[in-house]
Design a protein that fits this description.
Chain A has twelve helices and 14 strands. Chain A is α+β, with helices and mostly antiparallel strands. Chain A starts with 6 loop residues before the first strand and ends with a helix. Chain C is globular. The chains are: A alpha+beta, B alpha+beta, C alpha+beta.
Chain lengths: 275, 164, 773
């Protein structure tokens, strides 16, 4: 399988990348680790005329303590995120879930920003970011920068709030060192995407629960969160995990089964997060 | 639309002109003539093409050669010592019958090298999870797991054995 | 010390672990061009037009052709198929046109530029659809979608009917052994170089001699000018014995272009066009008594062969299933027959086990059905029905099939001991009564299969030139040995196995023996590696050739020692008079003398230290074994985990236990994968949904268990080694053990059967319905 022809620009800075993006517009695609894009190119399901490589931009690869939050550069690899002592201490849910992405080779090359910007609802990290109310920082060629709440970032299947001339540059995740958390991933082979996944943080009766692969975007299990806030037991609350979702159907699971899995896995996540 | 790349492969640095779409695995096999790295799928599921880039395991079918510009790539051909001694993982695969047809083997060995670099004494479960991205159709994996355990227990290079 | 029976590490490995293996795509000749296919996107359609102009105009493209550009259009070894689709396509992926370009990037671009327009036709995807009245016909000229049939013989029908009338109990069931793909890690590959004096082909094949003979006849090139080289092959599993279009097109286009032509299949293409296996639908009736004795069996198979059966293998699969449908049980009356059905899917053919996994599934599920109906322990039902150990050779009632030897109770008792069955049952009952625990099930498979293909006439029926295998032993002047064999291994470790056998007979260090295979110019005519035949048949050929050479070596050494050959022995490569180690002649001197006439006795000719033997076994062998699978089932998600798997194999004499374990473990994991993970799926429009390793769930190390191995040894009388063969046993035996374990775990919910693959969703539906009821 051979990618179609394209031109290639290796950006040395975020500004260079944004300038190239402005120049080539919608014909361009950003390339970070390439683990979402290159398979699509090889199957000829995507045919951009230019790839702008942001994989080696030093000022996009970092994990910094931002006081109330941790700031992660968009081109930081999954491996770096999963191994980060800072994240393990302050946002263990994200570090742990990132350690479940793909397989070791994918985690060594793939980046958190690439995974988020791809907007695949079957990916692990988007649901985590939605669950913990992360903020995504986008920058455009004009130099303007805006902060997008994770809950507003994912618009529909593989569609995000990023404008064509914008680039995701940073992911800001709130510090939640004391909160209970759990990540549940259900699949048939370890390397596969989740059939359904659950990312949960729990602080008393306040919960953030993100669902993987339960709709066109990563979604919050809002009914469960509200039930918990209203005093329901975890088991009662978990029964509402699939309320309002519109899960996909594929060879592994139909919507009924996905809804069931969401309830089971949310129940398990709440149980684990409490213990 | 050609680009110049300078890539170190097993310590030998060379500059080549490539199409941007050239996959690293094709660069290694066809321009560097290192055919030990194999291709087993189109979707980065099988891991037969696993190499190390700057010391970390990577699927070279899902990396463009231009992305490797300025980096160090290690392939199966660079693993044995210049005196012919086998890397402990190579010797482990031999001692434990960790290969049959041998097609997935270079990728399995490179992925295993990656596992042991992170974790010199992995449990069976850690080895199995560490190889989640590599498919072998012959062995059923049991003897591959034993091979990695063997390598963990014998971390020194092994003198070359009697050849086939 | 004897080598046979010891854990010798492989001679094959040093190349393969250092990246020095040579697979077909690794072979490089100056000027090599790349071939690629334009393949159908429709499952059944008339081809209205094929526009090649744009592709032909692309710089770097050398030739683009359709079937109309071929002199000979019919594809050998296939049922009503042309090398490229002619006027009509019958499955998604069927090659329509072929491109040759300067490199694989240009070839891929050119494929995209070929425009094909179709007029879609109604289609059939399942045998039920294909056999319906008025169903669309895959081959209109045939007038039916049944392409081959072995009906129930009237005599057997009558016998079985009488058995059923007299039987106190009976039961009926249906099974589907679903379509699964062999997934050799190296897909199909060929490099053809047709020069002025010779055609040389490197191919990823399981049978270089068979391919050579077929190419020679198809292309009209005499065999002395047609050389097939089998380099390292990245797995075959039965899918590299077929005559695929690429194997003929690459030579034809090489001749046309005057340049070497290479084709390397992608994984996506491999799923689309390489033959896949199984896909048998079974309808079963069984008669039995209250004590669990089986009294009669009716079996009718619908084999879904896809659009173009592979001849004659596709028809052979259900034949083998029929032969083995009584398993290791003494069943007095059996009637078995089958229909081969055409559908608009990828062609079906052999996959590891080839007809026998379907048979073991049938027999082992039927025995569990009887256990369930009678309430007798499934192990006990098996013991009551085993063919008694003193009744071998045993002829099955419904076919000319003679089991050579076996001790089935011994294997089962060993498995019961290994798994500690009594404690397992206690554990299972405790867990199944405790809602906080995973459900647990124990499944058996006491299987038997047919191997070492075969006695004279056996493989001839499958289109091969013979059923033998060959070995040539040649002592070199320095006293080392080169063995050339017609067998064509691709992972089995045959070079090591044959060297071990030769080392014992030549009394020579295994380090002084090299085995060569896979080159039709330099190895004796062979049949190939398939049907678990190599250790038993090529092993026997090697042994007999080595014995002949050693007898002559003794004569030479005796002449040099001035002794009687009968008084000699050879210890560690040194010939001496028995018990007199003071005067010895090393193999190096004997080897030199063998090619140096002045040193030979008068009655010994030069070249006497060479021997070629074609071994013809006197019968098939019947490896058997007892497997026990323990599964745990998540009550909430339906996820099935194989918690333990115990295997007791009996393949007769084991040449190399290390390699035998590898064969068994790999085979068992493939069988587990059929039970739990793998299935090729087509939608109702004939579009394949499992086209990559993302969708087709071949498991990785993280997804499967370790196997706990055991062994019994019941030698075969059909070769002097006593070896039965072990290449396919694991795959044949393991699948029903897993399914039996799952059914066992779910028995409390009234489950008597479950379809494969046993996905979590499937199990959840059962649990969900049971809880709703």
């Amino acid at each position: 399988m051979i990618p179609p022809k394209f031109d290639y620009v290796k950006a040395r800075s975020a500004d260079e990348a944004l300038a190239a993006l402005a120049e080539h517009g919608e014909d361009a695609k950003l390339l970070a680790g390439g683990h979402s894009l290159i398979p699509l190119l090889k199957l000829r399901l995507s045919s951009p005329s230019v790839l702008i490589d942001i994989g080696e931009i030093a000022d996009l690869s970092y994990i910094n303590d931002g006081g109330t939050h941790i700031a992660i550069g968009a081109a930081t690899t999954h491996r770096t995120v999963a191994h980060s002592e800072l994240l393990r201490a302050q946002v263990p849910l994200l570090a742990h879930a990132t350690g479940q992405v793909g397989d070791p080779q994918v985690r060594n090359r793939g980046t958190i920003g690439g995974s988020i910007a791809h907007g695949d609802p079957a990916s692990d990290q988007p649901a985590v970011l939605v669950a913990i109310d992360a903020v995504l920082v986008a920058r455009s060629a004009t130099g303007s920068q805006r902060e997008i709440p994770a809950g507003e970032f994912f618009r529909s299947f593989l569609e995000t709030a990023l404008a064509p001339d914008e680039m995701l540059v940073e992911i800001r995740v709130p510090k939640i060192p004391g909160a209970g958390w759990s990540f549940q991933k259900f699949n048939r082979r370890a390397q596969d995407w989740a059939i359904v996944g659950v990312a949960a943080v729990l602080d008393g009766t306040s919960a953030g629960i993100g669902l993987v692969n339960m709709g066109g975007t990563p979604v919050r299990a809002k009914a469960t969160e509200e039930a918990l806030a209203g005093g329901a037991s975890p088991a009662e609350a978990a029964a509402h995990a699939a309320d309002g979702t519109d899960p996909p159907s594929d060879l592994n699971a139909d919507p009924d089964y996905r809804c069931h899995l969401a309830r089971v896995l949310v129940g398990r996540a709440l149980h684990e997060a409490r213990s | 639309m050609q680009r110049e790349v300078t890539i170190s492969v097993n310590g030998a640095t060379r500059t080549d002109t490539v199409e941007p779409r050239l996959l690293l695995v094709h660069y290694l096999r066809e321009q560097r003539r290192l055919t030990g790295t194999h291709i087993g799928c189109d979707t980065s599921n099988c891991g037969a093409c696993t190499v190390l880039i700057d010391g970390l395991s990577a699927k070279s079918c899902t990396v463009l050669a231009v992305q490797a510009d300025g980096h160090e790539v290690s392939t199966i051909e660079g693993l044995a010592g210049s005196d012919g001694s086998f890397h402990p993982v190579q010797e482990g695969f031999r001692q434990c019958h960790g290969l049959q047809c041998g097609y997935c083997t270079p990728g399995m060995i490179m992925a295993s090298v990656g596992i042991l670099a992170d974790n010199p004494h992995p449990s069976e479960s850690e080895i199995r999870m560490g190889l989640e991205g590599n498919i072998c159709r012959c062995t059923g994996y049991q003897k591959i797991v034993e091979a990695v355990q063997w390598a963990a227990a014998h971390p020194q290079p092994q003198p070359a054995g009697q050849g086939g | 010390m004897s080598m046979v029976g010891t854990r010798v590490i492989r001679k094959e490995d040093p190349n393969l672990i250092t990246g020095r293996g040579l697979f077909t795509d690794d072979v490089s000749i100056m000027g090599t061009t790349i071939m690629a296919f334009v393949r159908s996107t429709e499952a059944h359609a008339d081809i209205v037009s094929v526009d090649l102009a744009e592709a032909r105009a692309l710089p770097g493209v050398l030739v683009v052709i359709t079937v109309d550009d071929l002199e000979t259009q019919e594809l050998p070894g296939a049922f009503m198929r042309t090398v490229l689709a002619k006027d009509r396509v019958r499955f998604v992926g069927e090659p329509i046109a072929v491109v040759v370009a300067e490199d694989r990037y240009i070839a891929a671009d050119a494929v995209e530029l070929v425009q094909v327009t179709y007029r879609p036709l109604p289609l059939v995807i399942t045998p039920v659809e294909a056999l319906a009245v008025g169903a669309p016909l895959v081959q209109e000229a045939l007038g039916t979608n049944v392409c081959f049939e072995v009906p129930w013989p009237q005599e057997q029908i009558d016998q079985v009917d009488r058995a059923f009338e007299a039987a106190p109990r009976q039961a009926s069931t249906t099974f589907h052994s679903q379509r699964v793909h062999p997934v050799p890690m190296e897909p199909s590959a060929i490099l053809a170089d047709w020069g002025p004096d010779k055609l040389t082909v490197w191919a990823s094949t399981q049978m270089p001699h068979g391919l050579r003979n077929c190419l020679s006849s198809f292309l009209g090139v005499p065999q002395h000018q047609c050389r097939v080289i089998q380099p390292d092959v990245g797995g075959g599993f039965g899918a590299k014995v077929q005559q695929y279009p690429e194997l003929f097109l690459a030579p034809i286009l090489s001749k046309r272009l005057g340049r070497p032509v290479k084709y390397v299949q992608t994984r996506t293409e491999c799923f689309a066009i390489m033959c896949s296996g199984r896909d048998q639908h079974h309808e079963i009736d069984v008669a039995f008594d209250d004590d669990g004795h089986i009294l009669g069996l009716r079996s009718l198979i619908h084999a879904d062969l896809g659009a173009y059966p592979d001849l004659p293998n596709s028809f052979g699969m259900p034949t083998l299933t029929n032969w083995m449908s009584s398993g290791c049980y003494k069943i007095p009356a059996i009637v078995a027959g089958y229909k081969c059905v055409l559908t608009n899917k990828t062609p079906q053919s052999a996959y590891r086990g080839a007809g026998r996994p379907e048979a073991s599934f049938l027999a082992e599920r039927v025995v569990d059905l009887i256990a369930d109906e009678t309430g007798i322990d499934p192990a006990e039902v098996r013991l009551r029905n085993f063919i008694p150990t003193d009744e071998f050779p045993y002829k099955v009632p419904h076919a000319e099939v003679y089991y050579d030897s076996g001790n089935y109770p011994l294997s089962l008792h060993e498995a019961l001991r290994l798994c500690d069955y009594e404690n397992l049952k206690v554990e299972r009952d405790r867990r199944n009564a405790d809602a906080s625990e995973k459900l647990m099930g124990i499944g058996f498979s006491t299987w038997v299969e047919i191997a070492a293909f075969g006695p004279r006439g056996a493989l001839e029926g499958f289109g091969h030139i013979g059923s033998y295998e060959s070995a040539q032993v040649k002592i070199q002047p320095d006293g080392t040995a080169i063995i050339a064999t017609g067998a064509s291994p691709h992972g089995q470790g045959t070079h090591t196995t044959l060297a071990m056998i030769a080392a014992d007979e030549l009394h020579m260090s295994i380090d002084n023996i090299t085995v060569r295979s896979g080159d039709t110019d330099t190895t004796p005519q062979g049949v190939g590696t398939m049907g678990s035949r190599t250790a038993a048949i090529a092993g026997e050929a090697t042994k007999q050739a080595s014995i002949k050479v050693f007898q002559n070596a003794c004569k030479i050494a005796a002449h040099m020692l001035e002794a009687n050959p009968d008084d000699l022995e050879c210890v560690d490569g040194l010939f001496q008079v028995k018990g007199v180690p003071s005067k010895t002649i090393p193999w190096s001197q004997v080897g030199w003398a063998g090619l140096s006439p002045t040193l030979l006795p008068d009655d010994i000719p030069a070249g006497c230290l060479e021997s070629t033997v074609f071994a013809e076994p006197t019968g098939f062998t019947y490896p058997a074994g007892a497997y026990v699978c323990v599964v745990g089932i998540d009550r909430d998600t339906g996820h099935v985990e194989v918690e333990k798997f115990y295997s007791v194999d009996d393949c007769g004499t084991v040449i190399n236990p290390l390699l035998a374990e590898g064969q068994v473990q790999g085979g068992i994991i493939q069988g587990i994968a059929q039970a739990l993970f793998e299935e090729m799926v087509w939608d109702s429009a004939g579009q394949p949904l499992t086209t990559t390793l993302m969708d087709y769930l071949a498991p990785a190390a993280s997804d499967v268990p370790s196997i706990i191995d055991g062994r019994t040894n019941t030698p075969t009388p059909h070769n002097s080694l006593g070896a039965k063969g072990i290449g396919e046993s694991g795959t044949i035996g393991s699948t029903p053990a897993v399914v039996n374990a799952v059914v066992n775990a779910l028995a409390q919910y009234g489950v008597k059967n479950i379809a494969m693959p046993i996905s979590p969703q499937r199990v959840w539906r059962i649990l969900n319905q049971a809880q709703g009821a």
